Amino acid sequence: MSTISSNPIAPIALKRNEGEALWFMGVLATIKSSAKTTDGKVAVIEHLAPLGSGSPLHVHRREDEWFYVMEGELTFWVGGEVIKAPVGSFVYGPRDIPHTFQVSSEKARFLLVTEPAGFEDFMRAAGEPAQTLTIPAPPSSPPDPAQMAAVAAEYGLEILGPPGIPT
After folding, report:
1. pTM, two decimal places
2. Residue 77's beta-bridge partner residues?
3. How far apart are CA 75 and CA 67, in angstroms?
4. What is d(CA 98, CA 161) in angstroms, rounded to the nearest whole number?
5. How many angstroms separate the Cα of 149 from the Cα of each of 62, 106, 130, 162?
6. DSSP character for 9?
7. DSSP class of residue 139?
8. I need a labelling partner for 142 at 20 to 30 A (CA). Which of 84, 125, 135, 149 fits?
9. Distances in Å between the alpha carbon of 32 and those of 16, 62, 160?
10. What structural domains and CATH numbers belong to the chain?
11. Within a 10 A sphere around the Cβ of 121, how many other Cβ atoms?
């Protein structure tokens, strides 16, 4: 006897440059899977990011987050530890652990995965649909910290500090 789910999830098969493309915090982010496509289980977002880009120091209250570096190098600060992450590196940040990262090579391509899904909704709210599949032009001014913190809070994220690796 087989069990059939009342909410079947369709298989996902996307090639490079396929998915929902966003410009988010100075990077090209392509959503490969989302809450909608995985019944809330997992979000997978491919990032193409320039040197120096990254996230503000923050903490997730709803999801665990992990990264896999496919090209370039990232530097992470997770729970007080600095981690250099060249190609092939995997870095896991459990929810409730403060962290940030920064691209430390000319550019980097990496996967960001959150479990459960939902973080991609924050990216949609704080970003915009990508006009081309390229890294966006640098913004004329940095995002308003208070506005970013308010939007982040709606999605279970707490901004703790500015972008960059704490010293």
Report:
1. 0.91
2. 82, 100
3. 11
4. 10
5. 16, 28, 23, 11
6. P
7. P
8. 84
9. 10, 20, 28
10. 20-131+144-161 (2.60.120.10)
11. 16
